[in-house]
Amino acid sequence: MSAKYLMRFLGIALLLAASQVLAGPKIQHWTGANGSRVYFLPTEGLPLVDVRVVFDAGSARDGQQFGVATLTAGVLDTGAGSWNADAIAQRLEGVGARLSTGVSRDSAFLTLRSLTDPKLLDVALATAHEILVNPTFNPVDFEREKKNLLVGLKQREESPADLAGIAFFRTMYGDHPYAHPKDGDIDTVEKLSRDDLERFYRQYYVAANALVVVVGDLDRAKAQSIADGLLAGMAAGSAPPAIPEVPQPAAANSVKKAFPSAQTHVYSGLPGMKTGDPDYFPLYVGNHILGGSGLVSKISDEVREKRGLSYSAYSYFYPYRQLGPFMMGLQTKNETAAEALKVLRETLEEFIARGPTEKELQASKQNITGGFPMRLDSNQKLAEQVASIAFYGLPLDYLDTFVQKVEAVTADDIRRAFKARIDPAKLQTVMVGGFDSAKPAR
Q1: Cα–Cα distance measured from residue 276 to residue 263, given in angstroms and rounded to the nearest whole number
Q2: What is the mean pLDDT of each run of 10 residues along the chain (442 residues)?
Q3: Among 33, 56, 40, which residue's Cα sits nearest to residue 231?
């Protein structure tokens, strides 16, 4: 069977293997030969390995050149050494491997998936190494990727949902590095040059700022060889300074932006919690009840089911390295925007004051713990989880203790955490849509 077709038949076996992960091998950690951090989770029975190389090089490191982190990652795999984009694609396709790059607000990453057969894996690893250590940033590739990014940014201007999200982050974060969209703005991206990308790469794509995650049917010696080989020859460099702390807003703020649409997009929230926050589990379980569990959540029940004000209404916590947002959102008719926002706020205030019932708490726990194995049902998902654990400095037994910590959350824990973290009097609210026909809240 060819590498291409073998990859297609691994899904069922991965699902069966996931149920054994929590009771199986533990995450191993060491420092690589070049000073990078390495995390290894061995799995059994599948001739597959997933590798993630993560750098502290997300959009929060853009400085005033908004979009440079995203564009750097986008151009990274378009040319390396003597290979152009076509040659790289042919090398990977020939061995059934998959490679991608990306960014978040906190990090930039390269992912590689390959079969473990040495003849196939060696080609995949050599290709990834060249991309990481010897990218060419070819001017033609740079201009093409920049043009594509600008096309996307111009299309973004036509989406009220996107504009509302951007305005919400800017309203909530002010001049903090989390404030701007990770893809940048049209005016900032237009000014970016190839030299800007090379400068960003040289500063942040260095061994001291990297971690490598290896998940697959390998022994430690092979995992160590993979990690050391991927970054061999990369500049040592140094880790960047910490991202500044996020201040809490002093008072509530409301921003309205007119857009010629039949519906209004509403976002309301404030900085919530960090990854690894001591209140993570009470806030996570509590929000599952409040607005994170889809149509059965309190917010959805009040906004959608009882009043028919919105098809979808929700709340989320997005933890970052520093305080990520607590965010409530909905989309409603222009004439019911004020009423929908009023219901959203009242539902939050009531939840903070009263917390969940025991019935709601138990249902939430069962839903979270019942779905947890699906977050680990593939090598790729395991690699993502391990990378998050590594990047944010979470305990290495995080996956083993997750269910236990969810089960330990009490209604009192949720009430205490929400009262301490979420002040309705300081909510930052953004509304984007048509307001001429809007009615005041009843």
Answers
A1: 37
A2: 43 39 74 95 92 98 98 97 95 97 98 97 98 96 97 96 97 97 98 98 98 96 97 96 96 95 96 96 97 92 95 95 97 95 97 96 94 84 95 95 96 97 97 69 48
A3: 33
Q: Tokens at residue 350, please?
A: 């009531």
Tokens found for residue 108: 């930039």
Instruction: Return the closest-CA partner of residue 258 out of 167, 346, 185.
Output: 167
Parse the chain into domains and list their residue ranges: 3-230, 253-433
Return d(Cα 293, Cα 397) in angstroms, integer.
Answer: 26
> The domain 253-433 belongs to what CATH superfamily?
Metalloenzyme, LuxS/M16 peptidase-like (3.30.830.10)
The reply to whether 3-230 and 253-433 are identical in fold is: yes
Q: Are 107 and 167 in contact (CB under 8 A)?
A: no
SS (H, E, C) 250-285: CCCEEEEEECCCCEEEEEEEEEEEECCCCCHHHHHH
Q: Give the CA distances from residue 182 to residues 23, 62, 71, 105, 151, in Å, rounded to whole numbers and listed in that order.
A: 37, 9, 10, 6, 15
d(CA 208, CA 214): 18
**Residue 149 corresponds to which tokens in the numbers above?**
């990014």
C-alpha to C-alpha distance for 270 and 428, rounded to whole angstroms = 6
Question: For residues 289-302, b (16+ Cβ closer than 10 Å) or e, as one string?
Answer: bbbbbeeebbbbeb
Strand partners, 100: 111
Cα-Cα-Cα-Cα dihedral sign, residues 21, 24, 29, 32? negative
Domain 3-230 falls under CATH 3.30.830.10: yes
- Nearest 5°: CA angle at 379, between 373 and 381? 55
Q: Are 39 and 27 in contact (CB under 8 A)?
A: yes
Contact 205, 83 (CB under 8 A): no
- By C-alpha distance, which of 230, 286, 225 is closest to 409? 286
